[in-house]
Amino acid sequence: MTMTASTTGAQRIREFKMPDVGEGLTEAEILKWYVQPGDTVTDGQVICEVETAKAAVELPIPYDGVVHALHFDEGVTVDVGTSIIAVDTDPGAGPVPDGSAAPAVDTAAAPAEEDAEPQGRQAVLVGYGAAPSSTKRRARKPQPGASTGVPVQPERANATLQAEVNGRPAAPAPVAPVAPAVTTGRPLAKPPVRKLAKDLGIDLATIAPTGPDGIITREDVHAAAAPAPSVAAAPEPEVAGPAAAGVVDTAARERRVPVKGVRKATAQAMVNSAFTAPHVTEFITVDVTRTMKLVQELKQDPDMAGLRVNPLLLVAKAFLVAIKRHPEVNAAWDEANQEIVYKDYVNLGIAAATPRGLIVPNIKDAGVKTLPQLAAELGELVATAREGKTSPAAMSGGTVTITNVGVFGVDTGTPILNPGESAILAFGAVKLQPWVHKGKVKPRQVTTLALSFDHRLIDGELGSKLLADVAAILEYPKRLITWG
């Protein structure tokens, strides 16, 4: 009967695992839980919001039931495929039988030299790394002086036995500082703290936590790594001189923020791109006075009513027309197959600064869209990015990108390619400058464009022609009609 009840309980408890909500993503951070243990959930109901390396995404539950347990706290990064929530799919059958969700393991009572095999998912509502049930973990030995419930410490017993064998009285064993009671099989610490301890060669199991709820803090790790104080007599106090008075503790004025989510993905992507694709960057300064006048005219055009019209829109259109004139620019390098992939579509990426970091969503098939369609999608893309609701699909499959550094008052830069793309155009600030126009020096609206491209795909001639065409269109925007 016991076996039958346990099996039934295990069938009732459904574990929902962190899904791969993007293309090959390996982890996601839990931003917010919308449910708590005991809440009723239905198929398709959103249970939490997670942040992947690309965007914030809401996760729906795929079945009905009552929340049995949350396995991770908010703010914890979880690997794809790891169970994050347990749901009782048959709450009307009464309490969940024992064995369907294993309780936390008390390592003080567990054998120190045997592998502890979990009998099921641990029902620990702490989000700092409860190991998956498919893995084994060696139970930790009790620390000297720890409140474990064991009357005799192994080290003291060994010392006493050795002394008796040698025929001399046993020396009193040094008493270690009393550590908090060990109640779980793994010390509680956030991922950045675990990495710090690993880098410093410190075993978290040897550290007495000082954080709330028994969490090991960064300061605890640094304290454990610091050399033990000398037992020698304390030196006489010295009179503080001018040098000593000027010593300032800078650590108290520093902040450390874990690198994760969008910022982590962006950093890794830029490193991979910079050291994979051979970058070439070219610059051109151009008079865009006519383009700026056209922007003002389009704002009054009935066909553009309700749409956001700005210089970036015309720069994007000019870039697309130039690519149409030089389609071999729109390509990708396939390293695995040693092939160049030429694309008959243009997915135009727009670099967008968001509170979570820089993301590059793209407008699908931008090359075939009219100016009003391009304006509508550009406005929606920027608004969605700022709200943090850009989907992973919107950031996949880009072919070329525009980054508008001019909005920050910057003249230009040397942009790094978005991984897998062939070119990126930087649009600098538009400024009133003296310019030779029709043989006379006049104040004109001038900007600088910078084009970075993959030199494996685009040689200097092709890259120069592409950039020159973009500049020519912005100088004489009527070419949007004659060339487009």
Oligomer classification: single chain
Secondary structure category: alpha+beta
CATH superfamily of the largest domain: Chloramphenicol acetyltransferase-like domain
Work out the number of β strands. 23
Characterize the overall form: elongated
Kindly report how far apart the N and C termini lie: 78 Å
Question: Can you give the mean pLDDT?
Answer: 77
CATH architecture of the largest domain: 2-Layer Sandwich
**CATH topology annotation of the largest domain:** Chloramphenicol Acetyltransferase
Task: Give helix % range.
Answer: 25-40%
Low-confidence stretches are: 1-7, 101-184
Count of the domains: 3
Structure annotation, total helices: 11
- CATH level-1 class of the largest domain: Alpha Beta
* Major sheet: 7 strands, mixed
Strand content: 15-25%
| CA radius of gyration | 31 Å
Describe the 3D structure.
The chain has 484 residues and is α+β, with helices and mostly antiparallel strands. It has 3 domains: 2-138, RNA polymerase II/Efflux pump adaptor protein, barrel-sandwich hybrid domain (OB fold (Dihydrolipoamide Acetyltransferase, E2P)); 187-224, E3-binding domain (Dihydrolipoamide Transferase); 261-482, Chloramphenicol Acetyltransferase (2-Layer Sandwich). The chain is built from 11 helices and 23 strands. The strands form 7 sheets. Strands 13, 16, 19, 20, 21, 22 and 23 form a 7-stranded mixed β-sheet that branches. Strands 1-8-6-3 form a 4-stranded antiparallel β-sheet. A 4-stranded antiparallel β-sheet has the order 5-4-2-7, with no helix packed on it. Helix 3 (191-200) runs parallel beside helix 4 (218-225). The radius of gyration is 31 Å and the shape is elongated. The chain starts with a helix and ends with a helix. Residues 1-7 and 101-184 have low confidence and may be disordered.
